Amino acid sequence: MRTEITINGSADAAANYLPWTPAPCRIRLADAGGLSGSVDVTLRNRDQNSGGQVVFYAAAGALEGHDELRLTLPTDGSPVDFFAGGKFGHPSTADQDAAIEVTETNGGATLSLTRLMVRIRKDANTLTDAERDRFVSALATLNDRGMGRFSDFRNMHRSAALDEAHGDAGFLPWHRAYLLDLERELQNLDPAVALPYWRFDRPAPRIFTREFLGASVGGGGTVRFSPTNPLQFWVTDNTTGIRRTPRFDTATQPASNSAGAVIDEQTTLRLGEGQGNLYEAFVQMEGQPHGRAHVSFTGYISNAATAPQDPLFFLLHANVDRLWAKWQWFYHRFDTTSVATYTYLGSAEDQGATRIGHNLQDTMWPWNQDTNDPRPATAPGGRFAASAIVNAPGASPAVFDMVDFQGTLDRPRRLGFDYDDVPFEV
Amino acid sequence: MMDVSEYRKQYEEQLKRGAGGQARLRDVLDRSKSVPERLDALESVRGAKGQDVVGDIVNLVRNKDEDLELRISALDGVSSEVGEHHVLIDVTLALLADQSEPPLLRRAAFRVLQQSSFRTILFQPRRPEYLAVLRGVVTDADPQLRLLAIETLAVEKDGEVQTRLIEGLKNPSVALVPPEKAIEFLGYDLHGSYYPLLREMVETSPNPAARREAVRLLSADATSKDMLARLLQDKSEDAEIRTISATALQSIAPAEFEAQAKQIALDEEEDDDLRAVCLSALDYFGDQESLNRDEEFNRGIDRLSSRAQSGALESASGELKSAGGELERASGELERAADRFIKRRRQ
After folding, report:
1. Residue A270 is nearest to which of B19, B72, B73, comparing CB atoms?
2. What is the DSSP pairing of strand A23-31 with strand A297-299?
3. Which one of A373-377, B122-126, B309-313 scores highest in mean pLDDT?
4. What is the pTM (predicted TM-score) of this model?
């Protein structure tokens, strides 16, 4: 007797990656061993003490995941649907280090073993050396000494395009899309990579090192790398190297400069306190802590037009995005009909709308490939990258598509990523 | 399993603990209170939005008779509002421009303006004034402010600053910043016309940091190929300059680089770090077909990799404890590069 499981609607192993958010799965008896009627099976994690862990949901709307799931499978091979997601607090640390074991409920014979990864965005300061090296390796390959696909990402964030993404409500969704597009490109090179984040309100002794994002040595403006770190071959705008000098002790202090430190996570989540915790107040985080984190250094990262020349940009913004995700989770801000979730609910043509690209129904440049004024004159990078595990947000996402990233209210809208400290909760 | 509802409960507690009480603006402004008391009260008005509150904080920041730390903290407390209140931009620009103000406060003002500049739509109308103030700071008495202003203007591709940086490289007596900084800042808007001067810096400058930065910028200049190849080959040259030359040469002359890099990677007389750099460059960006065909080279890499394994064994047994330095080299970056080179090809 043998069972077969498909994850994320695909039998391809490339789809065997789960965030916390439950994904649609199917199981069927591929070989009923000559039995008729039905067979009871139990699904559980193969190894409950190491590797990524999975929880099971019997239905899409189930409130809680469970360590085990019992199902009855028809012997004619018809599939049975269930849902699986990563178990909060138990992400993978290596590719395919999780496995769903299916056993016969009566008798205990193993019917199949499906390997997968609970792929989660983590605090970069806590990555294992292997996780760090995979990320660095994928990023350096994407850059390919300034000749690779990364140059599109660099070109999306130049002076002429900054108004698409800054100074208004669209700041958070635009950058969420930007990071996800990059992450999917990295995953095309190495599916085990998830974008890590830099918690700028905490010391980060393991990030600003020669082995990871480079160390600032002796006040020199260009960071140094270990001889085996491929980021030493980083080229942007025809210049080799990454210019970055911290204005604080990265090993012992949170990001800070002569004006003071970044506000911490709790203060950031309270930005709308006493005013209904509306998005309008929360998005002020663009100044503090986001802007403050950028200008806690000199070099590329300290100027909006040059910041993506430094890989740190993507870790800094992953933390900004994590803060938004955590605020959304904590205050239940996924309902796209509410101004508490997002300030401008209509499109740029509506009365009371804000600048195009910052209204909920507007499509986002450059993925919409719109180069008509007032959009920028060029749209680098083409359409939004597809994913092997989800269909959203499609090739030309709107601001709307970035909001319910876990598909909390509309499951097909899930974007296929999660953060290590932001759970999925219905 | 970490229970999600329990996690939520714990997080609620965390947020509650840090929740602010009533805004205590009166205490902030009360000069009969001590500075620590007023700083503590300032925390309660952080991110203040009302016009009145912002006005009072602005007056405090402006007041030269107030404590410096209090003024800086007050500016920090309303920094998120700069961009939304024109008066705040006015005050912050004036502080940055005013040479009679303490440098610490002016640096804080610069950082607040720089932070605000990320909110482009809001900041854009004031950008010309911001850049004009920075041009005034280019010759400021405070060296840190000078550097910050020059770097920002260089990023903005300010022609006047670029000209002055070039002049400083040609004539150090008029230099605004050290040569390595000048070269670094010119890199924000690299012009082909800079290359002859950069090559001259590499050939003649006694300053290793300036030479390093110059080599870095030459990585886009095909006419510097011969010089870069020479620097890479020269064992008497500064190790870091050779390393930067390696990455630069790989960009502009990959075939030439590959031939040199293979030699260096297997040369026992060479610097181990440079060998590891060359091997990593080949591993990631070399012509994989030609590398795979080169049996002699691959045998050499196998030998290096075995050295790593024996190093690890020695380390495990602890027998070479007294020869710590030797052991470190035996299981160092070069061997790691060799090991990875082989593993990636087996995948």
Report:
1. B19
2. unpaired
3. A373-377
4. 0.94
